[in-house]
Automatic annotation (TrEMBL):
This is Probable succinyl-diaminopimelate desuccinylase. Residues 191-325 form the Peptidase M20 dimerisation domain. Belongs to the peptidase M20A family. Keywords: Cobalt, Hydrolase, Metal-binding, Zinc. It comes from Oceanobacillus jeddahense. The lineage of its organism: Bacteria, Bacillati, Bacillota, Bacilli, Bacillales.
């Protein structure tokens, strides 16, 4: 047995022996409210900071916006080696209607093998696993042939402007690869994602008395009906998937057929532009011809089409309607992106999922977006792997299995050893 292999096994055993400490950490994270909005990360950042300092790590705070704190810590002194970034967000989506929860969203309770509460799956259990592994490496004085940085960011759930993008643009963190503990399935980290094209479309008309419509005025709402019909044609655009990512698409469809079987009917989303008319607002009252109407649209872009092509398509279709309109981009903005399954950071995670579970593992696409797109835009290979009960994410009664938290933590520890020793 190699020294590297012995070290991996030693860390895995340590996590097994001290798993109660890991689960208690994740529970404490859930008990601390960190909904975004409003986005105040003061309390949870203070807790994590104290936890890391107790382990002997040095930390640095970076306030990117009011009460939004990024926390960064690095261990390992051999700067000639590789540099890996552990990354996780501390914010969670709002709990919503509390009457629809079967338990307190901030309970952090463990019942029947489940950890309960808002953020259990997205992503306080994954974040806890990263923090625990990072602190364990420090407490055990593990000699790393490179560096490991832990970046805890406060702003992912509203688009992430003040989290990972802020840290990278300000050159506060850097690395050769990154692991984000976003929720994933047991054997399938996400190594690619569709692009995002969110926009507001505003259509203008001419007001008048409702009793004279449609002979008088120019109804912005009925104009919007025509506009939406054209926008939805994005789904029908014939897109040729580039050959270099076809294998990833094929594996992702296999995943949808064999793993998340309820997703089998949705395989086509990996080849098409999805179009969600998510919000509409217009008019004043029933007897006034509306002079404006606005919709918010969420489009996700597959490989083979880019943002400027979507803009051109929309302009062509809407111009042909002869109406006055304006398009404003907001929110997520990215093209489809991926990291090769053969990249060392992907190999370190995928190989160690198989090592820890004795089961085939392979990377897949996600049909949503995350901070991974930002790392890739800065030429940092990245993948996502974290504990989750996927049906509960962003919903009521969010939870995650305790055994999944422990499994992921073991993978995190083994992967950093393989990656930095390669």
């Amino acid at each position: 047995m190699t020294d590297k292999q012995a070290l991996k096994d030693r860390l895995i055993k340590e996590i097994d022996d001290r798993q109660d400490e890991l689960i208690e950490l994740c529970s404490q994270l859930i008990k601390i409210p960190s909904e975004n909005p409003p986005g105040d990360s003061t309390e949870i950042t203070t807790f994590i900071d104290e936890y890391l300092k107790d382990a002997g790590a040095e930390t640095a705070w970076y306030e990117s916006a009011d009460k939004m704190f990024n926390l960064v810590s690095t261990i390992g002194e051999k700067k000639e080696g590789k540099h890996l970034i552990y990354c996780g967000h501390s914010d969670v989506v709002p709990a919503g209607d509390l009457d629809k929860w079967d338990f307190d969203p901030n309970s952090g309770a463990v019942e029947d093998g489940w950890l309960l509460g808002r953020g259990a799956s997205d992503m306080k259990a994954g974040l806890g696993g990263l923090i625990y592994t990072f602190a364990l490496l420090k407490k055990m004085n593990i000699d790393l042939p490179g560096q490991l940085t832990l970046a805890v960011v406060p702003d992912e759930e509203t688009g992430g402007e003040y989290g990972v993008p802020w840290l990278l643009e300000n050159k506060i963190i850097h690395g050769d690869g990154s692991l984000i503990a976003e929720p994933s399935s047991r054997y399938n980290p996400t190594i690619g994602q569709k692009g995002s094209y969110w926009f507001k479309l505003k259509v203008f008309g001419e007001p008048g008395h409702g009793s004279l419509s449609p002979l008088a005025g120019n109804n912005a709402i009925t104009n919007m009906v025509d506009a939406i019909h054209e926008v939805r044609k994005l789904w029908d655009v014939d897109i040729k998937i580039p050959e270099e990512v076809q294998s990833l698409i094929d594996k992702s469809k296999r995943y949808m057929r064999e793993v998340e079987k309820d997703r089998e009917p949705f395989q086509e989303v990996l080849n098409r532009v999805t179009v969600n008319i998510g919000k509409i607002q217009g008019g004043t009252k029933a007897n006034i011809i509306p002079e404006s109407c606005e919709v918010e649209v969420d489009c996700r872009l597959p490989f083979g089409i880019e943002q400027d092509e979507v803009t051109a398509f929309l302009k062509e279709k809407l111009d042909a309607l002869g109406m006055e309109y304006e398009i404003t981009r907001f929110g997520f903005k990215s093209n489809a992106n991926h990291t090769s399954a053969d990249d060392p950071v992907c190999r370190a995670i995928i190989d160690n999922i198989s090592y820890v579970t004795d089961h085939e593992a392979y990377g897949v696409m996600q049909w949503a977006s995350s901070d991974a797109r930002v790392f890739r835009s800065h030429q940092i290979p990245v993948l996502q792997y974290g504990p989750a009960y996927l049906p509960s994410i962003h919903g009521y009664n969010e939870k995650v299995k305790v055994e999944n938290i422990i499994r992921c933590c073991k993978v995190y520890a083994a992967a950093v050893i393989d990656y930095l020793h390669e």
